[in-house]
Amino acid sequence: MLMLYFRKKRVIMKKIFLLSLLVNSLFASKVSFEVLGSGGPEIDGRASTSYILWIDNKARLIVDMGSGSMLRFEQSKAKLEDLEAVVLTHLHIDHSVDLPAFVKAGYFSKRRKSLDIIAPDGNEFFPSCSEFLNDLFGKNGAYRYMQDVLTKESDSFEIIPVNIKKETKREYKDFSLSFIRVHHGIVPALAVLIYVKNKTILISGDTNDANHNLEKLAQNVNLFVAHHAIAQNARGYATHLHMSPFIIAKVAKKIKAKKLLLTHRMKRTITKENETLRTIKTIYKGKIIFAEDRMKMEI
Ligand SMILES: [Zn+2]
Q: From the CA of 184, how far away is ligand 1's center (Å)?
């Protein structure tokens, strides 16, 4: 009798467990990362750098808006209305040039809520985020016909510059972002760590990681998005700007990345994938993926 009671209890507990698994899987929020642009500044059939963070099938964040990212955004069926923030890791053309196109498109969208545009603070060679938006949309800006977008009286939505001067964290409704300055020649540049539903994604931005700040920003990341703009045999100024595959591998190992996504691909690295893989695999043992435009992965 007692045995029967325990057996029945075990069966009930098992059913409850299976049911809770089913409920969890039905209601668990889904986080995905989409590459809009996997290329650099060249004419090569790829859009330049740009990524979307999708949460529960809504595009909540764009990181970088290189050329072609607007078209890829349209193709991905993302909506401007769903965005909570935009990050421009630095203000090189291949990371920022489509911003005015997105802002103009907003005029024809339903979005009315303001939108943060986050970018590094400037130096003598590059504008700060506020200066950049002013150069585009200010009273004396190139697109001064749309100067209302920098005000609350905007006909569509207000864009709000956020200058990142030092290590900072910013909270949004569904995710948070941590920033650190990274070395990219004379260019003020950021790496960004995204925290979303107990998952983390580190985007290196363009950097040669000379100051080792990537490992200071992140540990145990689910996805490391590394800008792979030079091959292992690169020499000269390019190595002052970008990480070699060897450095990418060392960082990926150090931060214990579960997956490594190689993006910002350029002609000088394309066709050298086997060599790159060989170099990286001697150090880093996780999964390695070469990015393509519109590649989307669950995190
Ligand atoms: Zn750059």
A: 7
